[in-house]
């Protein structure tokens, strides 16, 4: 029997509805949550995501501010924009889409964003709060994965979790969240020995590498829950000139073995955008010292 397909798209729609309710409540209290997205250069994939983000932000009743900067923008000009957004009372969340062109430094860029508005959870303050058990703004994609896992599995305590990938944006915060849920967590990466064996331990297997179909069916423990974060765009095999998205997991193989699995597209991706909106609401509540809604944080 095949695995249950975890419908991230439907779950994300539920989160976006909850966000919309909270936005209405905040507006009634005199606070209109706003999200600012900075896009440097014209990477086509980033354009697509930013477009999705804008639509979802507006549909939830929030203000959306988009700032497009030329690929050769100076650090000084980028920082001047970030400083303005930090000071702008209509902006509660700031996201600078990565990657940025090579002459800009991601670490310095993140450090310029007010941690209270860092809805990507990338700042040292938010990463440190997450690691030490505080109230952080948590990176959107791991937050979304945790929501899917909790919904399916309930209590995660004692489960073996393997996260493949150790980026600051995903792998590390995902591992921190799973640790906080009392999983036994392994973080695997490009230097891990016997990766298939490590993966076979996992009750919860999370893949965030960016290599299409790397995780094979026989890497999956029977009955495991598989979360596929990877997104690779490749030529469509049947439609000339078209592309399609594929994950890091060989879906057809893994689906035979796992108890549940997220598809690509329609799994984790929509959760990322829903959680970006959720984080913006959370940031607005914290900035204005208003009660935080249930179900939108980790
Ligand atoms: N669905 C969504 O909403 C999102 C999807 N993504 C997607 O997730 C994927 C990962 O993103 P991100 O974390 O930003 O990527 P990074 O490129 O920053 O990190 C990739 C990680 O994978 C590891 N890795 C690379 N090759 C191997 C290998 N052969 N075996 C094991 N580990 C390997 C790297 O190890 P090392 O550290 O040793 O180099 C690194 O830790 C991408 O496809 C991205 O597009 C990302 C964010 C959101
Ligand atoms: N500072 C920063 N924060 C990020 O969170 C961030 C980033 N930079 N850079 C790029 C990655 C990637 N990312 C995705 C968001 C939505 C989908 C998404 O909506 N995916 C849909 C399909 C989208 C489509 O059809 O193209 C799905 O999987 O079903 C995917 C990937 C956020 N990222």
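-> sequence recovered:
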């Amino acid at each position: 029997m095949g695995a249950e397909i975890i419908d991230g798209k439907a779950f994300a729609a539920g989160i976006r509805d909850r966000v919309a309710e909270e936005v209405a409540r905040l507006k009634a209290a005199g606070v209109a949550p706003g999200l600012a997205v900075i896009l440097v250069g014209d990477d086509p994939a980033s354009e697509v995501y930013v477009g999705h983000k804008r639509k979802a932000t507006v549909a939830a009743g929030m203000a959306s501010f988009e700032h497009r900067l030329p690929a050769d923008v100076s650090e000084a000009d980028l920082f001047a924009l970030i400083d303005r957004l930090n000071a702008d009372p209509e902006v509660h969340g700031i996201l600078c889409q990565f990657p940025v062109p090579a002459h800009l430094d991601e670490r310095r860029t993140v450090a310029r964003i007010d941690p209270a508005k860092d809805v990507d959870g990338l700042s040292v303050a938010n990463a440190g709060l997450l690691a030490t058990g505080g109230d952080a703004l948590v990176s959107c994609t791991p937050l979304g994965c945790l929501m899917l896992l909790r919904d399916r599995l309930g209590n995660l305590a004692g489960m073996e979790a393997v996260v493949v990938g150790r980026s600051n944006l995903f792998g590390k915060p995902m591992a921190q969240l799973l640790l906080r849920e009392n999983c036994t967590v392994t973080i695997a990466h490009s230097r891990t020995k016997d990766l298939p064996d490590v993966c076979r331990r996992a009750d919860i297997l999370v893949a965030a590498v960016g290599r299409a179909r790397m995780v094979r069916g026989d890497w999956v423990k029977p009955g495991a829950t598989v979360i596929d974060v990877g997104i690779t765009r490749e030529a469509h095999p049947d439609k000339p000139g078209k592309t399609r998205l594929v994950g890091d997991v060989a879906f057809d193989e893994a689906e035979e073995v796992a108890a549940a699995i997220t598809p690509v597209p329609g799994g984790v991706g929509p959760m990322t955008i829903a959680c970006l909106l959720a984080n913006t609401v959370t940031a607005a509540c914290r900035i204005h010292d208003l009660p935080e809604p249930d179900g939108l944080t980790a």
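The longest strand covers residues 34-40.
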